[in-house]
Automatic annotation (TrEMBL):
SUPFAM superfamilies: Amidase signature (AS) enzymes (SSF75304). The lineage of its organism: Bacteria, Bacillati, Actinomycetota, Actinomycetes, Kitasatosporales. InterPro entries: Amidase_dom, AS_sf. GO terms for molecular function: amidase activity. Its EC number is 3.5.1.4. This is Amidase. It comes from Streptomyces netropsis. Residues 11-445 form the Amidase domain. Pfam families: Amidase.
Length: 472
C-alpha cells in the first residue's frame, strides 16, 4: 500500500469475493458491511495524499458479532438481539474506524459467547448456524470466537476481533491454526461488547501472524502496548539471532489433552531449545481450586452485567425475559435446547453479597499467584502450554469435548495470553499458549513472534492465497 502496488479497494474486493465463494462451506461470516468498499476508497485517497492514519489504514477487519457496530446487527448469535442494530459503535470499533481500518463484516460465534447451556456446541448460534473448521469441515472450530478464527484460517480477512472470558480467543485460534491474543484486563475497552463478566472479559486481536495481532492491539488499546520496549520488530524479525536465545520458558505439558498433543508439545520444546531458549517443565499451582471457584463467580457477574447490557438494547430487557424468549422460540433450540447457565445465573448470589465477594477475592488472588509464583520460582519470561486438543467432531447431541485448562490462569488473573500455531495432529492444528505477568503484553508478543518464526516455516504467505482453504 505504501508503494501503491496494492490498494485497499483491491484487497477489500478480493476478500469480499472470497467470502462469497469460500464461506458457504465454512459459515464463518454472518454478514458483510455494505459500506466496506466506500471505506476502502476513502483509505486509498488518504494513501495518495500521504495522510494514512495507522498501519491498519485500509486493512479489512472482521468483528465478532457480540461487538456493537452501528448500522449493523449485533446479536451475540441470539434471535433475541436480531432486531434493531445498536445506535453506537463499541469503543474498540471507534478506534478501528479512527485508525482507518475497513470494517469488513461480522463473524458468527458460539451463542452468547458459550455462556448459555451446560453442554453447548461451539460455533453454533441460532442466527448463524454452525461454523465449521476450515481444515476438516466436520470438525469443530472451538469457541466462542469461532467465526473470527475460522475466517482467518480460510483467508476471509486480514485480521479479526475476538472476545474472551476464559479461552474464547485462544482456543479457536489454536484449533484453526491462527494467532490469538487475549490482552491484559482493561487494556482494551469493554464498552459496547456483550458481556459475561467485567472481571474477566476482554476483546483482543486475532490474525494469521503475530505482527498483525500486535499492530491491531496497538490500535485497540489506543497506542498503549505495555512493556513493549520497542522490541517486537527485532525479536520477531526472521533470522534475528537473539529472538529466543537466553529466554526462559516454563513448559506446562498438560498430558490430559492426549498423547499426540503431548508428543507435539515435547517436540515443540526441543525446537525452542534448538533456537537457544531454556525450557523447564513446570506445574502452576492452585488449578483445582481455580476450577472450583471460577464458575460460581461468573454466574453472579453474568446476571449483573447482562442485565445492564440488555437494558441498552431493543428486545428482552433483562435475564429473566431472555430466558422466557428462548423458551418461546423453537429456533433457539435447533442445535441444543439447554439454557442451564442462564437459569443458574438468575438464581446466583448477587455481586453485592459477602458470599460472592469472598469467592471472587480468592479466585483473583490464587490465579495471579499461580502465574506470579511459577514465573518467579523458575525465573521465566513466559509459561507455555498446549492451547487445545485436536478439533473434535461437531455433534449437537453430544456437545463440546472442551475441558481445556490452559487458558484459565491468565483469563482469571486478567493477565495476557497468546496462542501461536505449533503444528498438527494429523490434519488438525494445535496451538502453543504463552502467558506472562500483568500488562506484559508487548514482551509476550515479542516472544510470540520469535516462537512463531521458529515453529512455523511451513505457514502460508502473509497475504491472500489463491487456493481455497479446507480439506472437506
Amino acid at each position: 500500500m505504501a508503494t501503491g502496488t496494492l490498494t485497499s479497494s483491491a484487497l477489500t474486493t478480493a476478500y469480499l469475493r472470497r467470502i462469497e465463494t469460500v464461506d458457504p462451506r465454512i459459515h464463518a461470516v454472518l454478514r458483510t458491511d455494505t459500506t466496506a468498499l466506500r471505506q476502502a476508497a476513502a483509505s486509498d485517497a488518504r494513501h495518495r495524499r500521504g495522510e494514512t492514519r495507522s498501519p491498519l489504514d485500509g486493512i479489512p477487519v472482521l468483528l465478532k458479532d457480540n461487538v456493537n457496530t452501528r448500522g449493523m446487527p449485533t446479536t451475540a448469535g441470539s434471535l433475541a438481539l436480531a432486531g434493531s442494530p445498536p445506535d453506537t459503535d463499541a469503543a474498540l470499533v471507534t478506534r478501528l474506524r479512527d485508525a482507518g481500518a475497513v470494517i469488513l463484516g461480522k463473524t458468527n460465534l458460539s451463542e452468547w459467547a458459550n455462556f448459555r447451556a451446560a453442554k453447548p456446541t461451539s460455533g453454533w448460534s441460532a442466527v448463524g448456524g454452525q461454523t465449521n473448521n476450515p481444515y476438516v469441515l466436520d470438525r469443530n472450530p472451538c469457541g466462542s470466537s469461532s467465526g473470527s478464527a475460522a475466517a482467518l484460517a480460510a483467508s476471509l480477512s486480514q485480521v479479526a476481533i475476538g472476545t474472551e472470558t476464559d479461552g474464547s480467543i485462544v482456543c479457536p485460534a489454536g484449533m484453526n491454526g491462527v494467532v490469538g491474543h487475549k490482552p491484559s484486563l482493561g487494556l482494551v475497552s469493554r464498552a459496547g461488547v456483550v458481556p459475561i463478566s467485567a472481571e474477566q472479559d476482554t476483546a483482543g486481536p486475532m490474525a494469521r501472524h503475530v505482527i498483525d495481532a500486535a499492530l491491531t492491539l496497538s490500535v485497540l488499546s489506543g497506542g498503549e502496548v505495555p512493556a513493549a520496549g520497542g522490541s517486537l520488530g527485532v525479536a520477531g524479525r526472521p533470522g534475528h539471532p537473539g529472538g529466543l536465545r537466553g529466554r526462559r520458558i516454563g513448559l506446562w505439558r498438560l498430558p490430559s489433552l492426549g498423547p499426540q498433543v503431548d508428543a507435539l508439545t515435547i517436540r515443540t520444546a526441543e525446537r525452542l531449545r534448538g533456537a537457544g531458549a531454556e525450557v523447564v517443565e513446570v506445574t502452576p499451582p492452585y488449578q483445582e481450586r481455580l476450577a472450583e471457584l471460577e464458575f460460581p463467580a461468573l454466574l453472579s457477574e453474568f446476571h449483573r452485567d447482562i442485565d445492564r447490557y440488555l437494558a441498552s438494547r431493543t428486545g428482552p430487557r433483562n435475564l429473566a425475559e431472555l430466558i422466557e424468549f428462548n423458551r418461546t422460540h423453537p429456533a433457539e433450540r435447533a442445535c441444543f435446547a439447554g439454557q442451564e447457565l442462564f437459569e443458574q445465573a438468575l438464581a446466583a448470589p448477587p455481586t453485592t453479597s459477602p458470599e460472592y465477594r469472598a469467592v471472587r477475592a480468592e479466585l483473583t488472588d490464587l490465579s495471579r499467584r499461580s502465574i506470579d509464583e511459577t514465573m518467579a520460582a523458575h525465573r521465566l519470561d513466559a509459561i507455555a502450554s498446549p492451547t487445545n486438543p485436536p478439533a473434535w467432531t461437531t455433534d449437537c447431541a453430544r456437545g463440546d469435548n472442551d475441558v481445556i485448562p490452559s487458558s484459565t490462569p491468565a483469563a482469571v488473573a486478567g493477565y495476557p495470553s497468546l496462542s501461536v500455531p505449533a503444528g498438527f495432529v494429523n490434519e488438525l492444528p494445535v496451538g502453543l499458549l504463552l502467558m506472562a505477568g500483568d500488562h506484559q503484553d508487548g514482551r509476550l508478543l515479542s516472544l510470540g513472534a520469535a516462537v512463531e518464526h521458529r515453529l512455523n516455516a511451513w505457514r502460508a504467505p502473509r497475504y491472500l492465497p489463491t487456493a481455497p482453504a479446507g480439506s472437506g
